[in-house]
Write a structure and sequence with these properties.
Elements lengths: L3 E10 L2 E11 L4 E5 L6 H9 L6 E6 L2 E2 L5 H4 L1 E4 L11 H6 L9 H14 L15 H13 L5 E5 L7 H18 L3 E5 L2 H7 L2 E6 L2 E6 L1 H6 L4 H6 L6 E8 L2 E4 L2 E5 L11 E7 L4 E3 L8 E10 L3 E8 L2 E8 L9 E6 L5 E3 L10
């Protein structure tokens, strides 16, 4: 059983605050992802947990025991980085077996452990090759295998797929999640790729400039972003954000007809300014009899095979929509669009999500 608790973790590098007192928990067998852009503090968090960085403040607990003063070797964690870091003169077998050399295993036991892990990772046919004969995806599997063979208490993965091409990333994304489920490994995964985070995680921690913005399931993060920063970062493309005024049951947007405020906000809004967020898939081409119609001009079209990304122009406004591939739309075409009221999210002037009733 492995449970991790981080409390008030802070790390400074000179005048730069890398981590500003962050706190979170990881439950046993949970797959948690730290998601954020470059410079958010993701890698610093991992390095602090594994013992490669000494935090300036805060506590790191493993199974109820504070481990701040333990060395990396005493923490029994596996750290996998985006760099392959294989021993070039060793075979795949010896690279995977390396962590076992200082442990009391017989030769037969080591062989069994390595072959089991290699089979799980589909690299059992490569055990006698050296790294120079491997592809990027195969090398990354060897690195992951070297971590798995130890059977550590906690897996820490720092953007392990970032150096791979799109097809390999997709393949290994699903394999990593399958491995985590099959082995019940408690995992903290770091990425700047929101697709990886959304598809693999039990929970996501959105980190920005050393501050946690939101913690939740992928569904919660995507459907109810805690603030406008999360709404724009999560989703591809991110949420449309429009400045609106609320008064007498209606939202008014510069240059566009007013729309009815969604039912979930009717009892909580006060007259004033808000930011309205709407996901591209919640922007619809209006059907006959639809309410709150906006007349628009097609400004830009990106054909993606099974769907179209369309930028609509409404006076001074721009609104991006994700609509079916057919019927095809053309730049300059005039279309009526409507916003799904269930998809509308409202944010306060400070960017924080308005809590609905």
């Amino acid at each position: 059983m492995t449970e991790v608790s981080i409390r008030g973790l802070r790390k400074d590098f000179g005048d730069i605050v890398a981590l500003n007192g962050i706190s979170f928990n990881i439950a046993d067998k949970e797959f948690v992802t730290l998601l954020g852009p470059t410079g958010a503090g993701k890698t610093t968090t991992l390095r602090s947990i594994v013992g490669l960085e000494k935090p300036d403040a805060g506590e790191i607990s493993l199974n109820g025991h504070i481990i701040n003063e333990l060395t990396p070797g005493q923490r029994d964690m596996a750290f996998v980085s985006q760099h392959y870091a294989l021993y070039p003169h060793y075979t795949v077998f010896d690279n995977i077996a390396f962590p076992l050399h200082k442990r009391k295993f017989t030769t037969a036991e080591k062989k069994e452990k390595v072959e089991t892990v290699a089979k799980i990772l589909h690299i059992d046919h490569l055990l006698q090759r050296k790294p120079e004969k491997l592809s990027g995806g195969e090398m990354q599997r060897v690195v992951i295998g070297r971590a798995m063979v130890r059977n550590p208490q906690l897996f820490l993965l720092d953007e392990p797929l970032s150096n791979l091409d799109a097809k390999l990333r997709e393949e290994l994304r699903f394999e990593l999640k399958r491995l985590q489920i099959d082995n019940g490994a408690t995992t903290l995964y770091v990425t700047h790729d929101q697709v990886e985070a959304m598809s693999m995680s039990d929970r996501i921690i959105v980190l920005y400039k050393g501050v946690i913005q939101q913690v939740g399931t992928p569904k919660e993060i995507y459907g109810f972003p805690a603030n406008t920063l999360v709404s724009g970062f999560v989703g591809s493309p991110g949420m449309n954000l429009l400045e609106v005024q609320y008064s007498d049951g209606f939202l008014m947007c510069d240059g566009a007809p007013k729309i009815h405020v969604p039912a979930m906000y009717q009892a909580v809004l006060k007259t004033g300014s808000y930011t309205m967020g709407i996901r591209p898939e919640e922007v619809k081409v209006a059907s006959a009899g639809a309410a709150d119609i906006w007349n628009s001009e097609v400004y830009l079209v990106e054909a993606l095979g099974h769907e179209q990304l369309v930028d609509f122009k409404i006076e001074k406004l721009r609104l991006r929509a994700r609509i079916p591939a057919y019927p095809k739309v053309k730049v300059g075409e005039n279309l009526s669009i409507t916003l799904d009221p269930e998809g509308i999210r409202l944010f306060h002037p400070d960017g924080q999500l308005v809590q609905s009733q």
